[in-house]
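Q:
Just now I want nothing more than another pair of eyes on a protein record. Here is the record:
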Amino acid sequence: MQIFVTGATGFIGSALIPELLAAGHQVVGLTRSAEGAEKLLNAGATAHEGTLEDMASLTRGAERADAVIHLAFDHDFSNYQDNCRKDAAAIAALGKALAGSDRPMLITSGIGMGIAVPGELSREDVLDLGHQNPRIASERAGQELLEKGVNLSTVRLSQIHDRRRQGLVSYLVDIARGSGYATYVGHGQVRWSACHLSDAARLFRLAIDRAERGARYHAVDEEGVSLRAIAEAIGDSFGLPVQGVTADDAERHLGPMAAFATFDMPASSSLTQDRLGWRPAGPGLLEDIRAQPSD
C-alpha cells in the first residue's frame, strides 16, 4: 500500500517509516519544510508538502493514498485545548478523502480516554465521549468518520520512549533540569503506562495492515509506572534531588504539566495483544530514563 503519514518526521513517525518500508509499503510523509522533505527522502519515503493547519493539503495527501496514518499533534501544552480542536479538524480533513471507500485510516489518541473508573486500568473496549480531557476531541472526530462509513481505527498512546525521549516524561526532565530538582505530586502514587518506541512502531504497522473498522489499540507494555519512581529515575540520571509537592503547588512547579502529573493513567493492552499478536519486548521506561544522554 501507499500510506500517507502525518508526523512522519517526528519521534514515532521516524521509527514507523522503516517498519512500513520493510513490510513492503510505500510511504508518503507530510512535511512543511525542505529539511523535512530531505529527511523523508533519505529514509526512503516521498514528501508531501503541507501543514497540519492546511486542511486542503491534508485532504490532497489522503486522496492519493491507499491508507492514512495520522501521527502529527501540536505538543504546545500551553495551548492544549486549541491543539486538540486542531487535531479533530485535521482528522476530519483526512477522513473526507476516504469516505465511501474501504481504505484504512489510523488515528492517535491518549491512553486516558479508555478509563471507565478512576484507579482502574484503561481498556480498549471503553470509550467515554464525554471525557473531560480535551484530547477526547480526536476520538469524537474519529467516531463521526466511522458513522460516515470511513474505515477508521485508533491507537491510544502511553508514554512512548527510547533513550532520547520519553513522552510526557521528557517535559518533566526539562523542568527538573531547569529547576534543579525532580518533582512528583503528593505521594507520587499517580501512574503512567509506557511502551518502547520500537514496539509502538510495530503496533502501528500491524494495526494498519489489519484495517479493522472501529478497533482501538493500546500502545502499552508497562501498565503503570509511578510518578515517584519516574522522578527518582530522573534524579538518578541527572544527579538531582527529588521532592514531592502538594497538589496546590503543582502548577507553580510544573506549569502545564501539573494537570498530567495528577492524572492517573494506568492501562492494559491485553485486547491489543490478543487481536494483533503483538508482544512488546523493548526496554522499560525507567531503564531508558536512566540511560538517556546527560546533555
